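Reply to dn_fold:

You asked what the input looked like. This is it:
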Amino acid sequence: MISVATWNINSVRLRIDQVVRMLSEQTVDVLCLQEIKCQEHQFPAQALADLGYVHQAVHGQKGYHGVATVSRLPLRELGRHDWQDNGEARHVGVELTGAGKGLIIENVYIPAGGDVPDRDANAKFGQKLDFLERMTCWADGLDRPTLIVGDFNVAPLDCDVYDHKALIKVVSHTPIEVEALTRFGDAHGWVDIGRQFIPAPERNYSWWSYRSWWRQRDQGRRLDHMWASPDLARQARSHRLVEETRHWDAPSDHVPLVTEFDL
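and this is what came back:
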């Protein structure tokens, strides 16, 4: 059994103690982090290596964005796609080379898209849609079982947000974003692992805003995802959210997702 986790950590240097704690409490072989907010030479590699995560693929940049995949299992880096088309560090792909040999894990941080869901009025929203379109073209050419994980910044289903009617015009849940993500899903026949194990309309939130009374009102959204090629999805055995991390002191606004595969 091989376990893969994804977590938007919202600054890995600020929260490395929480990463260490999570990895000490959970069974995780491969951890994909987004929004590490540091350059590669600043990444806390040694702290993770001390836990056994000696195999690392880090794609960072100064102060913003950035992704990293760390593993107890041998891996090789496959590539870094610039789907944003502006040099931002938002993707790294790896392939396991030891246990789980051949498993491809794509770690992605899709742009948030700003506050206004209008391409003409908000360039960031247009960049998000273009990012999804480029991802879709890439997915259309895949010919190997693949797992793509990360912060997609889209809650696609009505039940993926705490109030569909209130959020349908809010970036992350607008019809145009949902349609774009659906096209990406159709391009490879991806299976949404989260909804495979926690079927709609069951609650399945992974993000709560710092600006809302999330503890009392549970105003969450499902922005983080793990999607697999059909053959790989059939080998998934469990999936869970590590929601307790959101209750830790000064937490990330996202929680980790963990899926186990019988490879």
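The mean pLDDT is 96.
Hope that clears it up.
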